[in-house]
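Journal club prep — side note

Before the paper discussion, L.F. wants everyone to see what a predicted structure for a comparable chain looks like in token form. Sequence:
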Amino acid sequence: MSVQGFDPARLARIKTHFAAYVQDGRLPGWQVQVSRRGEIVYRENCGHRDLEAKLPIEDDTVFRIYSMTKPITSVAAMMLYEEGRFELTDPVAKYIPAFANLRVLEGGPAIKPVTRPATQPMRIVHLLNHTSGLTYGFHHIHVQDEIYRNAGYEWSVPKGHTLERAVDDWARLPLRFDPGTRWNYSVATDVLGRLVEVISGQTLAEFFQQRIFDPLGMKDTSFSVRGSLGKRLGALYIPNAKGKATRNDDFGNVARAKPTFLSGGGGLLSTTQDYHRFTQMLLRGGELDGARLLGSRTLRYMTRNSLPGGQDLVQFGIPLFAEVKFDGQGFGLGFSVLQDPMAAGTLGTAGEFGWGGAASTAFWVDPKEEITAIFMTQLLPSSTWPIRTQLRQLVYSALVD
């Protein structure tokens, strides 16, 4: 008998498949949750949150969700948009003056770049859909990335730097292109988080807690290891030369320190249960259990492809690392949007949206099929194994109604 249209025996293939990742050492452990029409149809824990201490993955295990923070920051910004606090076409410099005199990289080496004035302002919509011209230092693709690294911005920020300080620094570094003309995965959502602070008058942590986490009942989501979160937080792993998960406390222990930099692009810790609450709000058009964060039309607007002419990320993006494959994928305001499952080479539904995190976490929301799916683990980077595409084929092949 099916459960909400899913064949339980077929869903069981998820554990069979991903248990092999734990058995052969590719992953320390993982957690999967799939829901349809608000009902959890599959939930499984496998392996360890801490291999060395032999601590298992449990229902309340805490994970570094890294870039799965971005959709939360995007929702926060759009909540302020709904209050009339800004327009999407407003220049970022209207709220953060450091962005007033942007320059675009034309050539030259990182130590002596050749730049020119930007042809248009960076607008708030450019932060939401990663067409700002900003970058990440860890891309290692372009001179601009090297400039960011030279300024101390690769995987994180210089010690002690606040969000305000980092954003002002980025505003002074050259853009890869004129805002709005290309797509490039970047620190744009961190800038968006600073925008939330400036407009709301609250820190990003305060805004998240009061306006999102408390209303949705996300009791274990935070920028810091407050309460019991530290005891439940998994260790962080990277693959060694043989592809085996190897502990990396240099990166992992960053999450255990008191944060000075509130990263709206990648700083949150969370649990599967908490993130499930967030995805259910998205699936239900901005509301959950009487708490409405966004209007349904706003959410539909955010989850449409915003790239010019309906282009996908292959056509409009710069080929580099991102938390999703580029083929057949558009990008909305804070989410990737599946445009064409055939082009993407995977089962799925046109219009589903989601994103992932650097430690191989991922989620998606499928409004047409009323499905949400969440995968949690702690292996950096997320490009190590094809977890996301494999999970998608296992979930959709179990749907039989």
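L.F.'s comment for the group: The mean pLDDT is 97. Keep this in mind when we get to the figures.
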